[in-house]
Design goal:
This protein is α+β, with helices and mostly antiparallel strands and 529 residues long. Strands 2, 4, 6, 7, 9, 10 and 11 form a 7-stranded mixed beta sheet that branches. β9 and β10 form a beta hairpin. α2 packs parallel to α4 and α5 crosses α10.
């Protein structure tokens, strides 16, 4: 009996001396984990409130929630944060743990390749992510799907830490910059989700792709938007312009989609065909041979090729009356009825300081072709230059085909024989401008947005336009700053889509307008006719 007791005692001592993870293929008894987070500044002091520009260090570790212990065979998880407020600058990886940043997430991955497991001491530090606080805002660090792998490859979900709130600067996001950031994220996601290729021959699903050139153009616009976003002292006008340019860049990219032939679906043998007929309105170009009249099988694509005359470019393409931005090669994604295509061409501008990708390009081209604007020189348009009161009066005068004017000494600062004399006198005689008090017009003063609205409204009134508006009030933050004389005009201009607010929900009525902005408003106005 004594011998048996000694044997049992030896066995117990032997088992007690072995590592705890020999007890089971998966888990030791009473085994559980919890993710811990430590947020500090560069000195190692725990903090939850930081200044813009300050570095933030985030360390994760795992702790046991029960008495059991076991080796680590693998784990994965995500640390989520607001990439508008913080920018991930680096990661300090520990042991064999991988840390990678992707779209507002730090991904943690570890997989044991020895089948023996790693000592659980590695859990005490699974890596540190370093961030730079780049914008005002408040958000929570949170975990996404932290999972530990057992020896037999089954998974154990790990208890996450409670969300940790972080405040940067004032804690309040700037609406316009936040909007720009969201647009950048959307544009990047679009690029990442589509196929970029040139003349692919093996793409079957999806049946569309985008050229490398169109992708390069969008990447360039995204990079410019990111440069504005990263600029700490970016002006509201710069942010607004970046949002508009990015919107146009995304639209141009989406319109550049190339549709390949669809793979045929089994049918009853009765194929349906549709006609696609293309023609030109206004001359200055032609439809390429073989593309004027096509017979297209139902649900397949149709492509039309345009050949502009020298010095012209494809302006618009009308598909059964619906207008699209013109391109020399245009693909209709899916033909499901007879289609009539009408193409217009426009003269290229001589201006070297505007490019096809500029958000205002089409409006400047329109104004140039309509004879509304001339350049500031033979080759310069100066899109960012200010528009003077005399310039806008001259544009409206040209819209009326420059009727004969009998000069009258209405304004003391408008003399006869100057380039703007007839325009200003005509505008005064037609109740479009009244000038300032004491007979002053100030022709060279930069025109404000609300003054533009007033002149367009009065011009439309004289033309007999419908001036009725539906909305009863304006929702802009600075609506109370609109001058009394301009309220009715701005209400009309906004409701008709001629004038639009900024991304920060302001209208900036007393702000100065650039030549590019005025060209855009004039095109919107002309399209009301």
């Amino acid at each position: 009996m004594t011998k048996q007791l000694k044997i049992m005692l030896c066995m117990l001592l032997l088992v007690a001396g072995l590592p705890s993870y020999v007890y089971g293929a998966n888990d030791a008894a009473d085994l559980g984990y919890h993710v811990d987070i430590t947020v500090t500044d560069s000195s190692g002091s725990p903090k939850s409130s930081f200044d813009v520009g300050e570095e933030i260090f985030v360390k994760l570790s795992l702790s046991y929630t029960g008495a059991g212990r076991a080796p680590v065979y693998g784990f994965q998880g995500k640390l989520q944060f607001d990439s508008y407020v913080l920018k991930n600058t680096s990661v300090h990886m520990e042991k064999d743990i991988s840390m990678k940043y992707s779209d507002g997430v730090i991904n943690y991955i570890y997989l044991d390749m020895t089948a023996s497991g790693k000592d659980d001491s590695m859990l005490q530090n699974i890596g540190t992510a370093v961030f730079k606080a780049r914008n005002n805002g408040t958000f929570n660090f949170s975990l996404g799907s932290f999972i530990l792998t057992n020896k037999d490859a089954t998974h154990r979900y790990i208890e996450p830490f409670e969300d940790v709130q972080i405040i940067v600067g004032s804690g309040i996001k700037e609406a316009s910059k936040s909007s720009l950031y969201e647009d950048i994220v959307v544009a990047k996601s679009l690029l990442a989700s589509v196929i970029i290729a040139d003349n692919p021959k093996t793409i079957y699903s999806p049946d569309f792709w985008y050229s490398t050139k169109s992708a390069q153009n969008l990447r360039k616009v995204i990079a410019e938007a990111e440069a504005v976003f990263d600029k700490e002292d970016a002006l509201a006008s710069e942010i607004s312009e970046a949002i508009e340019k990015l919107s146009i860049g995304v639209s141009n990219f989406e319109n550049s989609k190339i549709i390949g032939p669809k793979r045929w679906v089994a049918s009853d043998g009765n194929n349906i065909n549709y006609s696609v007929k293309a023609s030109v309105r206004g001359g200055n170009g032609k439809i390429a041979d073989g593309f004027e009249a096509q017979t297209i099988r139902a649900t397949t694509s149709a492509t039309i090729r345009m050949i502009p005359d020298e010095g012209f470019e494809t302006e618009y393409i009308f598909i059964n009356g619906e207008k699209f931005i013109g391109r020399d090669i245009y693909t209709i994604p899916e033909v499901s009825r007879d289609i009539t295509v009408v193409v217009t061409f426009a003269r290229k501008t001589p201006f070297t300081d505007i490019a096809h990708d500029d958000w205002f390009y089409f409006s400047v081209r329109y104004a140039y072709n309509e004879g509304l604007f001339t350049g500031t020189s033979e080759t310069k348009f100066s899109p960012s230059g200010q528009m003077s009161r005399a310039m806008l009066a001259t544009v409206l005068y040209r819209m009326e085909n420059q009727p004969n004017v009998k000069f009258s000494d209405v304004f003391s600062d408008v003399q006869s024989g100057l380039w703007y004399s007839d325009s200003i006198i005509w505008a005064n005689q037609n109740q479009i401008v009244n000038g300032y008090r004491k007979g002053i017009f100030a022709p060279n003063d930069a025109i404000t947005r609300e003054q533009i609205a007033v002149m367009l409204y009065r011009y439309a009134q004289g033309k007999g336009f419908d001036l009725h508006t539906e909305n009863s009030s304006l929702s802009f933050k600075d609506a109370n700053k609109i001058s009394a004389f301009a309220k009715e005009s701005i209400h009309w201009a906004v409701s008709k889509g001629i004038m639009k607010g900024n991304s920060d929900l302001t209208l900036n009525p007393s702000g100065l307008a650039t030549r590019a902005e005025v060209a855009t408003m004039l095109q919107r106005f002309k399209e009301l006719e």
